[in-house]
C-alpha cells in the first residue's frame, strides 16, 4: 500500500460528514466529531538501504535537498534573502518531534505532552504514526546538517525547512486507537492550542484533521484564545486518498488558514488533497520528503506535508514584518497566492497557489479583518447562549421578542395513574354510557323523521 492510500483522516483535528464543492464548511449543530489521525509516512533508511516493501525508493540524506523541489519552484530560496524565521516560534501540535535528529538539533525547544502518555518535553513519538511530527517539523524548520551552505541558510545535507532558523515548540498528542491513560482528543486539542499560545508561539502548525466539518464545543475557547492573542493557526484540508472528500475540522474553524494540495504540475491533487470552501491556499502535497526519527528520511504525500510549508512561510513573514497580527499574516499569504482553477476563490485552491517570496516581500495592503473569518464571531452567532440575552438579542424598539421570566416555576405534584387509584373502570363505564345514550337518541330521531 503506497503513502497516498495509507493517508489517514486528519483531525485532530475531528468529525464525520460530507462537504462537497459549493457546500458550506461551517459545521451544523449535532454533528459529532471523529477521532483525528495524522497523515502517513514511508520510512527510508539513510544511507541507502533496500527499498521498503511498499516499493518506495530509498532517500539518501546527502542529496535529499535536490528532491525538495518547492524550495525553488515556490520561491523559498528567494524569500531567504529577506528572512529565515529567526526569532519566530512555530508550535507543532502533532505526534511528537525528535529533537535529536541531525536536521533539527538546536531548533526544537522545550515542549509539552497533552496526551498523558508521552514525555514531558513533547519529543517522544506517539500513536499510530509516531514519526509524523518529526516529518512535519523538518519541513517547517529543518536546518540540514554537515557543512554550511554557501549563499543561504542551513547546511548542505539533509532537510531544509522553509524557515530554517525558526524554533519548533513540540506539543505531542496521541492520535489513533484509544489507549489506557490517554486523554480524550477533545481534551488534547484545546490543551495543546492554549499551551502553544501561552508559551509564545507565533504560528501553530496542525497537520492533523478529521472527516467532518464540525468540532466539539470544547475547542471553541482555545481557538478563540489563539485568535485573541494574534496567533495564526494553519491546518490541513485532508486527503481523498484516505477517503476524505471534504475539508475536516480543525481546518473548518473560522480564522484558521486551511491548506489544500497540488501536484507537480500545480493541479489540484486528487489523492493528496481535499476540497471545501474553507480552503485558503494550496501548495505542494505530492512527492514530498521529510526527516524521520533516528536521523532517517522518508517519502510521503498529503496536505500534512503542505501545512508546514505554509507555517514556515508565516514564520518568514513574522520575522520580516513583526508588527503584523496573525490575521494580517494570513492576508499576505492569500493575497499573494496565484489564482488557479475557477476565477477567484474556489473549493480546490482557495485564494490560489502559495508564493513564498511574494508573501514575504511584496507590498500588500492588510486590514484588521481576517479574510478567513473569526471564530469568536462564529461562537457568538452559533453556539447556544447560556447567559441572559444581550442588547443584540433585542428588537429595534428595544423590546425583546420574548418576556424575561423571573418567577420560579411551581413543580407539579406527582399523582398515581388512574388504574392505580381504582378510578379507571368508573371513567370507562361512564364514557361508554354517554356514547350509548347519544347513539340511542340519534336513532329515535332518525326513526321519527322516516315515519313522517
UniProtKB/TrEMBL annotation:
<feature type="region of interest" description="Disordered">
    <location>
        <begin position="378"/>
        <end position="417"/>
    </location>
</feature>
<feature type="domain" description="Peptidase S8/S53">
    <location>
        <begin position="85"/>
        <end position="352"/>
    </location>
</feature>
<feature type="active site" description="Charge relay system">
    <location>
        <position position="94"/>
    </location>
</feature>
<dbReference type="Pfam" id="PF00082">
    <property type="entry name" value="Peptidase_S8"/>
</dbReference>
<keyword id="KW-0472">Membrane</keyword>
<feature type="region of interest" description="Disordered">
    <location>
        <begin position="101"/>
        <end position="129"/>
    </location>
</feature>
<dbReference type="InterPro" id="IPR015500">
    <property type="entry name" value="Peptidase_S8_subtilisin-rel"/>
</dbReference>
<dbReference type="GO" id="GO:0004252">
    <property type="term" value="F:serine-type endopeptidase activity"/>
</dbReference>
<dbReference type="GO" id="GO:0006508">
    <property type="term" value="P:proteolysis"/>
</dbReference>
<comment type="similarity">
    <text>Belongs to the peptidase S8 family.</text>
</comment>
<keyword id="KW-0720">Serine protease</keyword>
<feature type="active site" description="Charge relay system">
    <location>
        <position position="132"/>
    </location>
</feature>
<keyword id="KW-1133">Transmembrane helix</keyword>
<keyword id="KW-0732">Signal</keyword>
<dbReference type="InterPro" id="IPR050131">
    <property type="entry name" value="Peptidase_S8_subtilisin-like"/>
</dbReference>
<feature type="transmembrane region" description="Helical">
    <location>
        <begin position="423"/>
        <end position="447"/>
    </location>
</feature>
<feature type="compositionally biased region" description="Low complexity">
    <location>
        <begin position="386"/>
        <end position="397"/>
    </location>
</feature>
<protein>
    <submittedName>
        <fullName>Subtilisin DY</fullName>
        <ecNumber>3.4.21.62</ecNumber>
    </submittedName>
</protein>
<feature type="active site" description="Charge relay system">
    <location>
        <position position="304"/>
    </location>
</feature>
<dbReference type="InterPro" id="IPR022398">
    <property type="entry name" value="Peptidase_S8_His-AS"/>
</dbReference>
<feature type="signal peptide">
    <location>
        <begin position="1"/>
        <end position="30"/>
    </location>
</feature>
<keyword id="KW-0812">Transmembrane</keyword>
<keyword id="KW-0645">Protease</keyword>
<dbReference type="InterPro" id="IPR000209">
    <property type="entry name" value="Peptidase_S8/S53_dom"/>
</dbReference>
<dbReference type="InterPro" id="IPR023827">
    <property type="entry name" value="Peptidase_S8_Asp-AS"/>
</dbReference>
<keyword id="KW-0378">Hydrolase</keyword>
<dbReference type="InterPro" id="IPR036852">
    <property type="entry name" value="Peptidase_S8/S53_dom_sf"/>
</dbReference>
Amino acid at each position: 500500500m503506497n503513502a497516498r492510500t495509507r493517508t489517514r483522516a486528519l483531525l485532530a483535528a475531528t468529525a464525520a460528514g460530507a462537504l462537497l464543492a459549493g457546500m458550506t464548511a461551517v459545521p451544523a449543530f449535532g454533528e459529532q466529531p471523529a477521532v483525528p489521525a495524522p497523515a502517513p509516512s514511508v520510512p527510508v533508511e539513510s544511507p541507502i538501504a533496500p527499498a521498503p516493501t511498499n516499493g518506495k525508493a530509498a532517500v539518501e540524506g546527502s542529496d535529499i535537498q535536490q528532491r525538495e523541489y518547492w524550495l525553488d519552484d515556490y520561491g523559498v530560496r528567494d524569500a531567504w534573502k529577506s528572512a529565515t524565521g529567526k526569532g519566530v516560534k512555530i508550535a507543532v501540535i502533532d505526534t511528537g518531534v525528535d529533537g535529536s535528529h541531525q536536521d533539527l538539533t538546536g531548533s526544537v525547544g522545550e515542549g509539552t505532552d497533552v496526551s498523558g502518555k508521552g514525555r514531558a518535553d513533547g519529543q517522544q513519538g506517539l500513536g499510530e504514526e509516531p514519526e509524523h511530527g518529526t516529518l512535519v517539523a523538518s519541513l517547517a524548520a529543518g536546518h540540514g546538517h554537515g557543512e554550511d551552505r554557501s549563499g543561504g541558510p542551513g547546511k548542505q545535507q539533509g532537510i531544509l525547512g522553509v524557515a530554517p532558523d525558526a524554533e519548533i515548540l513540540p506539543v505531542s498528542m496521541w492520535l489513533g486507537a484509544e489507549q489506557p491513560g490517554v486523554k480524550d482528543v477533545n481534551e488534547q486539542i484545546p490543551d495543546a492550542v492554549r499551551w502553544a499560545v501561552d508559551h509564545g508561539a507565533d504560528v501553530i502548525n496542525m497537520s492533523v484533521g478529521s472527516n467532518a466539518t464540525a468540532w466539539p464545543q470544547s475547542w471553541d475557547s482555545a481557538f478563540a484564545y489563539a485568535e485573541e492573542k494574534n496567533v495564526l493557526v494553519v491546518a490541513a484540508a485532508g486527503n481523498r486518498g484516505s477517503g476524505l472528500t471534504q475539508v475536516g475540522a480543525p481546518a473548518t474553524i473560522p480564522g484558521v488558514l486551511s491548506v489544500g494540495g497540488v501536484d507537480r504540475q500545480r493541479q489540484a491533487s486528487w489523492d493528496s488533497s481535499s476540497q471545501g470552501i474553507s480552503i485558503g491556499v494550496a501548495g505542494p502535497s505530492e512527492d514530498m520528503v521529510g526527516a524521520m526519527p533516528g536521523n532517517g528520511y522518508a517519502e510521503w504525500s498529503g496536505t500534512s506535508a503542505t501545512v508546514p510549508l505554509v507555517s514556515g512561510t508565516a514564520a518568514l513573514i513574522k520575522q520580516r514584518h513583526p508588527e503584523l497580527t496573525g490575521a494580517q499574516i494570513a492576508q499576505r499569504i492569500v493575497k499573494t497566492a496565484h489564482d488557479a482553477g475557477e476565477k477567484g476563490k474556489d473549493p480546490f485552491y482557495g485564494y490560489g497557489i502559495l508564493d513564498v517570496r511574494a508573501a514575504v516581500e511584496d507590498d500588500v495592503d492588510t486590514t484588521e479583518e481576517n479574510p478567513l473569518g473569526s471564530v469568536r464571531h462564529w461562537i457568538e452567532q452559533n453556539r447556544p447562549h447560556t447567559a441572559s440575552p444581550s442588547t443584540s438579542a433585542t428588537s429595534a424598539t428595544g423590546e425583546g421578542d420574548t418576556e424575561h421570566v423571573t418567577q420560579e416555576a411551581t413543580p407539579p405534584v406527582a399523582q398515581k395513574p388512574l388504574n392505580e387509584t381504582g378510578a379507571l373502570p368508573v371513567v370507562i363505564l361512564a364514557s361508554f354510557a354517554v356514547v350509548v345514550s347519544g347513539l340511542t337518541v340519534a336513532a329515535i330521531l332518525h326513526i321519527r323523521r322516516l315515519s313522517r
